[in-house]
Design brief:
With 400 residues, the protein is of the alpha/beta class. It is 44% helix and 15% strand. The longest helix is centred in the C-terminal third of the chain and has 21 residues. The mean pLDDT is 96.
C-alpha cells in the first residue's frame, strides 16, 4: 500500500505524456535487429536505412570487430574505474596520442560521449561571470546545455550571421570579458550546412577569442582522411579546440577534444565529466584505433560517401524536393508541416525506406522535414530505389 500511495506522486506524468502527444513530441523507439547497416532490419522490416550516422559503414566491419574481440581477450571487458583513479589503460593513452596526431594538435583527451565532451569544455573553460560564451543559434543541444552549466554569460548569434557575431564581439560586455569563446558546430546536424570557419577565425583573431568547433558530423567525413572542418579549411593550426566524435563515422561511442598539452592536463584535473565517469571499455578503444587505421589508409571510403551524397541530392532535387542549405551527407527534405512529415516518413517505411521525420520544436515551424543521411556503404541500386520511393510517396501525398 505504501508503494501505491507513493506512486500517486508520479501521476502527473500521465498528463505530461498527453501533452507530448498533442505537441507531436512523444517518441516511440524503433528497434534494430542485427547490425547497423545501409540496409537494416528495423521493427522487423527490411529497409534502406537513411537515418543512421554510420557514414563509412564501419559498425560491422570484420577488422573493427576483430580488434574489439582481441582487446577483450587482452584487457577484459571494462576498467571499473574513472580515468583519474585506475581507469587509464595503456590503450586509452594510445588512442589519445593517435587522435592528436590525426587532428594535427599537441594532445587530445577522450570523453565518454560527444555530448559530455561539449558540456565538459564549456563548463571547464567558461568559469567566471567575467567570461563570455558566444554560440551559433543552431548549435547542438550538448553545446546549449554546456553553456547553461558554464558560469559565464552567453550570447547567441543568428545562424552563420557574421555581422551578428561581430556585433556581439565588439560590444562592451565582450570587450570587458576576461576571456571570450566562440562555439560553433562544424557541420550543423539538422540542415547539413557548414560553418564559415575562415570568417569566424578572422573575427576571433581580431577580438582575441578562443574558437571551439564541434565536428561531430564532420569527423570521418570532411577534410583529408576525415580530419574535419578545420582541416577542410586549412585551419587546423589555428582553431584552438577541436571536438570530435567516436560514435558516428567511427561507429563506436565517445567524444574527444583535440588541443594543446596544457588543455589536456587542465581538463584531466578539472573536467567533471572526465573526473566522475568510468572510462571506455578497452574493446571500444581498440575499435576506434582500428577505424583510425582505416581512415588513414582507405580514402576511397570517404570518396564513396561523397559520390553517394551527390547522387542522392541530385535525385531529390530533380524530383522536386527542397533540400535546404545542405552541403554534406546530411540532407533534409523540407516539408514545412510536422504531420505531413510524419505521414511521409510512415509511408516511406511501408515502402521499405527509413527516413526520420523531424518536427517542431526540434526545428523551426515551417521547416519540418525528413532528415536523410547516406553512407559509403549504400549501393547505387539502394539509392535509386530510395529515390524512386521518395518520388512515388511524394506524389501520392501531394508534396511534389
Amino acid at each position: 500500500m505504501k508503494t501505491e500511495a507513493g506512486m500517486r506522486n508520479l501521476e502527473f506524468l500521465d498528463a505530461e505524456l498527453e501533452t507530448l502527444k498533442k505537441e507531436n513530441r512523444h517518441i516511440t523507439l524503433r528497434q534494430l535487429s542485427g547490425p547497423q547497416e545501409p540496409v537494416s532490419i528495423v521493427d522487423g522490416k527490411k529497409v534502406i536505412n537513411l537515418t543512421s550516422n554510420n557514414y563509412l559503414a564501419l559498425t560491422n566491419d570484420p577488422r573493427v570487430k576483430a580488434a574489439a574481440k582481441d582487446a577483450i581477450d587482452r584487457y577484459g571487458v571494462g576498467t571499473a574505474a574513472v580515468r583519474t583513479i585506475i581507469g587509464t589503460m595503456t590503450i586509452h593513452e594510445e588512442l589519445e596520442r593517435r587522435l592528436a596526431r590525426f587532428k594535427g594538435t599537441e594532445a587530445s583527451i577522450v570523453f565518454q560521449s560527444g555530448f559530455s565532451t561539449n558540456v565538459a569544455l564549456c563548463q571547464s573553460l567558461m568559469t567566471s561571470e567575467r567570461d563570455l560564451l558566444v554560440s551559433d543559434e543552431l548549435n547542438h543541444a550538448s553545446i546549449i546545455d554546456g553553456a547553461r552549466l558554464a558560469k559565464s554569460p552567453r550570447k547567441i548569434y543568428a545562424h552563420k550571421d557574421m555581422k551578428a557575431l561581430e556585433k556581439i564581439l565588439e560590444s562592451p560586455e565582450s570587450r570587458q570579458a576576461r576571456r571570450r569563446m566562440i562555439v560553433t558546430d562544424g557541420v550543423f546536424s539538422m540542415d547539413g550546412d557548414v560553418a564559415p570557419l575562415p570568417d569566424i577565425m578572422a573575427l576571433a583573431d581580431r577580438f582575441d577569442a578562443i574558437v571551439m568547433v564541434d565536428d561531430a558530423h564532420a569527423s570521418g567525413v570532411m577534410g583529408k582522411n576525415g580530419r574535419g572542418t578545420p582541416d577542410h579549411f586549412g585551419l587546423s593550426d589555428r582553431v584552438q579546440v577541436q571536438i570530435g566524435t567516436l560514435s558516428k563515422a567511427f561507429g563506436a561511442i565517445g567524444g574527444y577534444a583535440a588541443s594543446t598539452q596544457a588543455m589536456r592536463e587542465y581538463l584531466v584535473s578539472t573536467s567533471r565529466p572526465f573526473l566522475f565517469t568510468s572510462s571506455h571499455p578497452p574493446s571500444v578503444v581498440a575499435t576506434c584505433l582500428k577505424v583510425l587505421d582505416i581512415l588513414e589508409s582507405e580514402p576511397q571510403r570517404i570518396e564513396a560517401l561523397w559520390r553517394n551524397t551527390r547522387h542522392f541530392k541530385e535525385g531529390l532535387r530533380k524530383a522536386g524536393f527542397d533540400t535546404g542549405a545542405s552541403e554534406t551527407p546530411i540532407t533534409p527534405v523540407i516539408i514545412g508541416d510536422t504531420e505531413k512529415a510524419r505521414k511521409f516518413s510512415a509511408r516511406l517505411f511501408e515502402e521499405g525506406v527509413f527516413a526520420l521525420a523531424i518536427g517542431f520544436p526540434t526545428v523551426a515551424k515551417g521547416r519540418e522535414r525528413l532528415r536523410t543521411i547516406v553512407s559509403s556503404g549504400h549501393t547505387p541500386q539502394d539509392l535509386d530505389e530510395a529515390l524512386s520511393k521518395f518520388q512515388k510517396v511524394g506524389k501520392e501525398l501531394g508534396l511534389i
